[in-house]
Specification:
This protein has 318 residues and is of the alpha/beta class. The chain folds into two domains: 206 residues, Spore Coat Polysaccharide Biosynthesis Protein SpsA, Chain A (Alpha-Beta Complex), CATH 3.90.550; 97 residues, no CATH class. The protein contains eleven helices and nine strands. The longest helix has 20 residues. It is globular.
Amino acid sequence: MIEGLVTTIIPVFNRARLLEEAVASVLAQTYRPIEILIIDDGSTDDTPRVADRLAAEHPDVVRVIHQPNRGVGAAREAGRLAARGEFIQHLDSDDILLPQKFEKMVAALREHPECGVAYGRTRHRDVNGNPIACDWKPVLAGEETILPHFLRARMWDTVTPLYRASVIAQAGAWTTLRLEEDWEYDCRIGALGTRLVFIDKELAEVRIQPDRLSMGTSRDAHRLRDRAAAELLILGHARRAGITNETLEMQHFARALFLLARQCGAVGLANESRRLFEASREMSPDRLQYRIYAAFARVAGWRAAGQVSRFIDALRLR
């Protein structure tokens, strides 16, 4: 570990133009020293050539790791193992940092040695650069811990926080999940009791792309399998953190698990559906809807139960 160094880990797959802009935003930081790790996750377009050119242009700052396509979690893990910084920044290739991010966040972590993560505000833009409201995330501003708040959702974006490398080391290896792996990882950090420091300033920008991994369908079995695995891990992290079933955040998460159980069942993921349902019911055992759903699943099967539930949910939305 190099004291004071901020390592930025950028996983990328087939996003040559956006990669250049992401790297430029790191190079424009008012803080030094920095290093940039580009993890080319098996790109099949011009991205590998662009990544190598960036490393040749900035040999003291940029390094490139080329690997077969394994997904974003595995790419971030490759970056974690290669990082040399005292601080770690995760940056998706379609997002950018604002110039003072490292300066403000390193200063905050220096001022608060008891804290392991700094975070600020993040703005959002659509593919055309127009500002958009991020109304799918609850507001996170000033909270001092990750849990229990993150049981409502991942309440910041990948680009938002800056981590101490010591916290990343405690959290350990990333999973190979391709969805919600970042939410799971942050909740794992939360289970360590990690303290947060907040900077009330916009310091990063998320640009919503049409091919963003999180923008998918709830009928995709591969996506749902990864989501089920991630959210069961998140539940374990919450329990290790001492979050009780009675808290509002845990009850919210129980409802989310029940919904995901129904979605998994509808696409034939019977094992995932059963495990999610049982976890949700354990958190709210006395609800009549659980008893009715369990009885129907025993008779008709988890897939039929999920399909009927999806049909009823669709009717409610009309």
